[in-house]
Amino acid sequence: MYVFVFFVCYISLVWWRTEYPDAMLYLIATVLCSFSIGMLMKLTAARGMNAAVVIASNYVVGAVFGTAFALLAGTSTLSMTTVLLGLGGGILWPVSLTMLMVVLRQYGLSLTGALANLSLAVPVLFGFVFLNEQLSLLAWIGILLTFVAFFLLSPPRHDDIQRLDQRAVLAFLLMIIGIGLTQLWANLFNHFAPAEEQFAFLAILYTAASLLSWLFLRVRSIKIELREVRWGLVLGLPNFMGLYFLQESLLTPLFAGQSAVVYTLISGLGVVVAVLAGTLFWHERMTRTNLAGVAVAICVIVLLNMGY
Questions:
Q1: How open is the CA angle 136-141-142, to the nearest 5 degrees?
Q2: What is the pLDDT of residue 234?
Q3: How many C-beta neighbours within 10 Å does residue 243 have?
Q4: How confident is the chain (308 residues) per 10-residue block, as mean pLDDT?
Q5: What is the pLDDT of residue 294?
Q6: What pLDDT does residue 297 have?
Q7: What is the pLDDT of residue 217?
Q8: The 3-state secondary structure of the chain, one letter per residue
Q9: CA 91 – CA 170 distance, rounded (Å)
Q10: What are the domain boundaries of the chain?
Q11: Residue 218: what are its φ and ψ, rounded to 5°?
């Protein structure tokens, strides 16, 4: 409880002191959307729903909202870059999620959850290597400590590690790259496509993802239940808004040229919010290792706020 109070007070102080409160607003909104997605997926799993149907249904909401906002914004032209990024994201989203589900089914939650967190390295390294982002020493320390926090919060079991073979390593590598690219995609659009085509990009991405996902359900002859579709439609709103808020947070002056910091802050904040919510509302028990992970994650947030 004391950790929760400190965390809220610190975030409030940072928000109050910053010259760009909209940047923190977008950042926190992104975290809350991500948290909502995680909680909704957890509820669907607990109720025995088919994740593939829920995910396919959620893309429909993104397609509708993206198209509606693009029309309201008066988007009349489309660059080839926007179309290609939209179609690429539309393929990447369902493929990476399918890969995640396959790996999760074959190798278990403990190992998959621990290794999936490594996907943060993809957008961080891309920003440093290809976008020439300059990070302070404190920022680098914060980024490295994030991976320590991930390990402490979801350490893989020894039995799971022993199951790793060449095939498993390749599967996990593809999963990490796929999830990392989905995180990176918003930043790619911000850097290489016209800003006024943002909603058109989202519309193309979610439409392509929806078509591909429903085609997958059709080919696999997966039974579709109405309650799964309903949950997917609910999930679609935070999914769509989360990507929008991520794009906006990356564009704010406070985080200009600091995408690595943005992605790491979102991951650190997301971990702390998820763990605290699990403890307060789901009554999940935390080990000393997990508490150490929360403490490290909070240190990461403090260091990153000092380092940019």
A1: 95
A2: 95
A3: 25
A4: 46 49 82 86 84 93 96 89 96 87 72 77 92 87 90 73 71 88 93 94 97 94 94 94 93 86 86 75 75 83 72
A5: 79
A6: 83
A7: 94
A8: CHHHHHHHHHHHHHHHHCCCHHHHHHHHHHHHHHHHHHHHHHHHHHCCCCHHHHHHHHHHHHHHHHHHHHHHCCCCCCCHHHHHHHHHHHHHHHHHHHHHHHHHHHHCHHHHHHHHHHHHHHHHHHHHHCCCCCCCHHHHHHHHHHHHHHHHHCCCCHHHHHCCCHHHHHHHHHHHHHHHHHHHHHHHHHHHCCHHHHHHHHHHHHHHHHHHHHHHHHHCCCCCCHHHHHHHHHHHHHHHHHHHHHHHHHHCHHHCCCHHHHHHHHHHHHHHHHHHHHHHCCCCCCCHHHHHHHHHHHHHHHHHHHHC
A9: 20
A10: 10-307
A11: -65, -45
Structure token digits, residue 121? 């390295």
